C-alpha cells in the first residue's frame, strides 16, 4: 500500500512537470527511479499525458523502459515515437528483446526499422531472427566480453573497462582462439584475485559448460539452475562462440513457461489476463470446455445404464459427487507433480518406472485411508456393512486409478513430444469421472442383492 501511494505521488509530480514543461524537474524525479518503475508510471498515466512523457524521456531511458513493457505496449510506444526516434531507441535495446518485438511486425514496418538502425545493431538483430523462437539462439545476446588466452590479467581488465557500458553481463569473460572457438572462461572474481601480470591461460577454466544455438530455452534454464550460473555461453558447430544467455533472460523464460503451463493445466488456452475482454476470454476458454462437455456426456450415459441399480439403492447417489471429485483431485495432484518434474529433471526409463511405482504406492496409501474412513461413515448412516464395503472399496480403486492416470498420461504425451501440460486438470478430472462412476456402479451392481 505504501509503495502504491508513493507511486501515485510520483505520478502527480510528473504530470505537474509535464504540464509546466519543466524538463529539469521531470529528469530529477526519473533519475531516482528504476526502468520498471518508469514503465509502471507510464502505464498508469492518463493517455493525454503519454506523448509528452515519451518526448521528455532521454533515448537511453526510453530503451530501458521499453524492455519492461508488454509486447502490445511496446508497439504502442513505437507508434507514438515514429520511425526516426524509434530506431535510435532500438539501437540501445537488447538484441534478443528486439528480435522478439520485430517478429510481430509486418514485413514493411520491420524493414523500415531495421534499415534505419545502425548497421552493426541491425545485423545483430537479423542474425538472432534466423534462429527458431524459444531456442538459445533467439534468447542470447551478442553483448559479451571475449578475450584471448595469451592476454595478461591487466589486458583483460582494461578490455573489460572499455566494454563495460555495452556488455550485458560482466560476470564472466570468455576465452576464444583465433577461430573464435570457445576454449575457456574466467570469472570477474578470478581477475580480481589474480596478479595483474598473470596470463589468462593460467587462471582460466578449460572445461566450459555451454549450450548450442538450437537448445530449447527450458533446457538452457535448467543448465543455469543446475550449475548456479549467472550466464551461459552459446555456441554453433565446431564450438564457435556466438553469444551468451544471461540469468535475467532465463528468469523471464521460467515465468513465461510457468504461466503457459498454468494456462494449459486450467484448460484456458492462450493467455487471459485481468485486462482481457470478456468476449476474448470466453472465446479462448470455449474450445476446451466444449470438448470436456462432450466427454462429460459419457458420464451421463454411464449413470443411465446403471439407472436400475440407482433406483433400488437411492443412497448410492449421495456418494457420487464425492467418488468422482476425489478421483479428479488426486489425478490433478499427480499431474502437477509430473509436469513440474518434467521441467526440472532429465527423464529416463528408470526414473519413469520409479515415478509410476511411487505414485502407485501413494494411491494405495491414500485410497486405503480414505476408503476405510468413508466406509465407516457409510455403514453408520445406512447400518449396512455391505453398503460401507461398496463405497469404501470403490473409493480405494478409483483413487489408485486416478493417481496413475494423472501420472501416466503426461508421461505418454511427453514421450510423444507433446507438451505434457496439455493433459490439463479438467481433462484428467473428466476422464477420471468416467472411470470412477463405472467402477462405483459396477461394484454396487455386483452387491445389489446385499444392499437392498
Tell me what the structure shows:
- This protein is 68% helix and 6% strand.
- With 452 residues, it is mostly helical.
- It has 3 domains: 2-135, Alpha Horseshoe (MgtE N-terminal fold), CATH 1.25.60.10; 146-255, CBS-domain, CATH 3.10.580.10; 278-451, Orthogonal Bundle (Tetracycline Repressor, domain 2), CATH 1.10.357.20.
- It has a 3-stranded mixed β-sheet with strand order 1-2-3.
- Strand 2 and strand 3 form a beta hairpin.
- Helix 20 (385-415) runs antiparallel to helix 21.
- The protein starts with a helix and ends with a helix.
- The mean pLDDT is 84.
**Please, how many domains?**
3
CATH H-level superfamily title of the largest domain: SLC41 divalent cation transporters, integral membrane domain
The count of helical stretches stands at 22
Largest sheet: 3 strands, mixed
- Through-space gap between termini: 62 Å
Shape: elongated
Strand order of the largest sheet: 1-2-3
Mean pLDDT: 84
From the 3D coordinates, which CATH architecture of the largest domain would you assign? Orthogonal Bundle
Structural class: mainly alpha
- The total beta strand count reads 6
Residue share in helices?
Answer: 55-70%
Q: What are the low-pLDDT stretches, counting only 5+ consecutive residues below 50? A: none
Strand content: 5-15%
* Cα-based radius of gyration, to the nearest Å: 30 Å
Provide the CATH topology of the largest domain.
Tetracycline Repressor, domain 2
Break the fold down into its secondary structure elements and pairings:
Blueprint: H1 2-19, H2 23-30, H3 35-44, H4 50-56, H5 59-66, H6 71-90, H7 95-103, H8 107-116, H9 119-128, H10 136-139, E1 146-147, H11 153-162, E2 172-176, E3 182-187, H12 188-193, H13 200-203, E4 211-212, H14 217-227, E5 231-235, E6 241-246, H15 247-265, H16 278-305, H17 307-312, H18 316-344, H19 349-382, H20 385-415, H21 425-446, H22 448-451
Parallel strand pairs: 1-2, 4-5
Antiparallel strand pairs: 2-3, 5-6
Helix pairs in contact: 1-2, 3-5, 5-6, 6-8, 7-9, 14-15, 16-21, 18-20, 18-21, 19-20, 20-21
Amino acid at each position: 500500500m505504501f509503495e502504491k501511494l508513493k507511486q501515485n505521488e510520483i505520478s502527480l509530480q510528473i504530470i505537474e512537470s509535464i504540464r509546466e514543461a519543466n524538463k529539469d524537474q521531470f529528469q530529477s524525479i526519473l533519475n531516482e527511479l528504476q526502468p520498471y518503475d518508469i514503465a509502471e508510471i507510464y502505464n498508469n498515466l492518463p493517455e493525454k499525458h503519454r506523448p509528452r512523457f515519451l518526448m521528455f524521456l532521454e533515448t537511453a531511458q526510453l530503451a530501458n523502459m521499453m524492455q519492461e513493457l508488454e509486447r502490445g505496449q511496446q508497439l504502442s510506444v513505437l507508434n507514438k515515437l515514429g520511425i526516426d526516434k524509434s530506431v535510435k531507441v532500438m539501437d540501445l535495446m537488447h538484441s534478443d528483446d528486439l528480435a522478439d518485438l520485430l517478429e510481430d511486425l509486418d514485413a514493411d514496418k520491420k524493414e523500415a526499422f531495421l534499415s534505419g538502425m545502425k548497421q552493426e545493431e541491425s545485423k545483430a538483430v537479423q542474425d538472432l531472427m534466423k534462429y527458431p523462437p524459444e531456442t538459445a539462439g533467439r534468447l542470447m545476446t551478442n553483448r559479451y566480453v571475449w578475450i584471448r588466452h595469451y592476454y595478461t590479467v591487466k589486458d583483460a581488465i582494461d578490455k573489460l573497462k572499455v566494454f563495460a557500458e555495452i556488455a550485458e553481463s560482466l560476470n564472466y569473460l570468455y576465452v576464444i582462439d583465433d577461430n573464435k572457438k570457445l576454449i575457456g572462461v574466467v570469472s570477474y572474481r578470478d581477475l580480481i584475485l589474480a596478479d595483474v601480470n598473470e596470463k589468462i591461460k593460467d587462471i582460466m577454466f578449460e572445461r566450459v559448460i555451454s549450450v548450442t544455438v538450437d537448445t530449447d530455452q527450458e533446457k538452457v534454464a535448467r543448465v543455469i539452475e543446475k550449475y548456479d550460473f549467472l550466464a551461459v555461453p552459446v555456441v554453433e558447430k565446431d564450438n564457435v562462440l556466438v553469444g551468451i544467455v544471461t540469468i535475467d533472460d532465463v528468469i523471464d523464460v521460467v515465468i513465461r513457461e510457468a504461466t503457459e503451463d498454468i494456462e494449459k493445466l486450467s484448460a484456458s488456452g492462450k493467455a487471459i489476463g485481468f485486462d482481457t475482454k470478456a468476449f476474448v476470454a470466453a472465446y479462448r476458454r470455449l474450445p476446451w470446455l466444449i470438448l470436456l462437455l462432450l466427454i462429460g456426456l459419457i458420464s451421463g450415459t454411464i449413470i443411465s445404464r446403471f439407472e436400475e441399480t440407482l433406483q433400488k439403492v437411492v443412497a448410492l447417489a449421495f456418494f457420487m459427487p464425492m467418488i468422482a471429485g476425489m478421483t479428479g483431485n488426486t489425478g490433478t495432484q499427480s499431474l502437477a507433480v509430473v509436469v513440474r518434474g518434467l521441467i526440472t529433471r532429465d527423464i529416463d526409463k528408470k526414473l519413469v518406472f520409479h515415478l509410476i511405482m511411487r505414485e502407485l504406492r501413494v494411491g494405495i496409501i491414500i485410497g486405503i485411508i480414505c476408503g476405510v474412513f468413508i466406509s465407516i461413515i457409510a455403514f453408520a448412516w445406512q447400518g449396512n456393512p455391505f453398503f460401507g464395503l461398496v463405497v469404501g472399496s470403490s473409493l480405494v480403486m478409483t483413487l489408485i486409478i486416478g493417481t496413475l492416470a494423472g501420472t501416466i498420461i503426461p508421461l505418454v504425451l511427453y514421450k510423444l513430444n507433446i507438451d505434457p501440460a496439455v493433459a490439463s486438470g479438467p481433462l484428467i478430472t473428466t476422464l477420471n469421472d468416467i472411470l470412477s462412476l463405472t467402477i462405483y456402479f459396477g461394484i454396487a451392481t455386483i452387491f445389489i442383492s446385499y444392499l437392498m
